[in-house]
Design a protein that fits this description.
With 205 residues, the protein is of the alpha+beta class. It is built from 6 helices and 11 strands. Helix 2 packs across helix 3 and helix 4 packs across helix 6.
Amino acid sequence: MAIYDLENILNFFRKDEVVERSLAPEEVLFHQGSPTQSIHFVVDGEIRVETYLEDGRSIVFYRVQGGGALSEENLFFPTHLYTGVASVDTVIRSIAKIDFLDRMKVDPKFARSLASCLAERYAHALTLRELIGIKSAEDRLLTWLHWQCSQGQESLDFKGRMGSLAPELGLSKESIYRAFARLKERGEIRVKDGRVEMLNRIAGS
């Protein structure tokens, strides 16, 4: 979700107000329940934002890639609502919460941009809630694939990461692999070289 233009955002702040950091795969950026101190921007790589259920499973709320922002909700909550983890080698830039709030007070355009991003985040959460309510694993996966393609993508790159999709859909890795196989059998998707192509696009997607 790259509503922000990263370089444009950084231009609002002095160089000494922006801290750059590198994260290794599976390194935690922030833990659920820890104090909120900064707003983060992904320069390169990917951060997944997830929460953990009582049975030990994790659910991914959203993923942020290069150019995107995450943890904007930190501005309004004293502790992190989720855990942020690097999916791959990742570079982030962070701005202190207090500096971000000060900028919002003096720049209405900046504040509106933040509001737009939070609105999209909320819409994403509603979609996730709808997905989790679909009992069939293959129908849940198919709905998610159609939703992704409705955002302008002709095909999706899953090379080496089909299993990592499981927490995002609230399924086990085994269920995800079986669901992909069944969708292929049903003629809903084609998988080639790690890319998934939708064969039966729904109207508007």
